[in-house]
Amino acid sequence: KKRRAATARRQHLKSAMLQLAVTEIEKEAAAKEVEKQNYLAEHCPPLSLPGSMQELQELCKKLHAKIESVDEERYDTEVKLQKTTKELEDLSQKLFDLRGKFKRPPLRRVRMSADAMLRALLGSKHKVCMDLRANLKQVKKEDTEKEKDLRDVGDWRKNIEEKSGMEGRKKMFEAGES
Question: How far apart are CA 173 and CA 178, in angstroms?
């Protein structure tokens, strides 16, 4: 009974927390919407279209000037952001170098075929097949005279029998003199 009561209490607390979270999220969304409306009312006055053509052209020129100024500001802020991120990376690299040696994390061994490794490196777009035997050069075997001679001489017992005893030594001696 105690365990059932504990789980029931835990479930009740969990549901209460979820209800509070939902109401908080709704309040935040409503606050953001009100803030957005206030900002738009403050910075974007309601558009009043003039009746004559000349006034419309002046309004368009003003709008284009505002657009250009906003684009210049955006470009400047992007450049500043890129510069600061580059400085931040340089400083973090210097800090890393000053700390000293880097300990390499222990790597796990992973069994992976050559095809899977190439697919992982090159991406799934490239279909790579690692058939190593396909790239080998074909070589034709030719029977040469040397190979035939080697085959004929191949039985080593005949040579030893011929050279054994005094007759074989005599033949070797006579072959060496001439």
Answer: 9
DSSP state, residue 49:
-
Residue carrying structure tokens 């450049």: 79
Question: Residue 168 class from Cβ within 10 Å (0-12 exposed, 13-18 middle, 19+ buried)?
Answer: middle
CA distance 115 to 130: 6
Cβ neighbors of 102 (< 8 A, separation 6 or more) are: 96
Contact (CB, 8 A) for 159 and 150:
no
- DSSP secondary-structure letter at 132? G
pLDDT tens profile 67-112:
999 999 999 999 999 999 999 999 998 888 887 766 677 777 777 7
**Residue 68 in tokens:** 């250009």
Question: Residue 161 and residue 171: Cα distance in Å, rounded?
Answer: 13
Alpha-carbon gap, residue 165 to 106, rounded angstroms: 71
pLDDT in tens, 25-51: 999 999 999 999 999 988 887 777 777
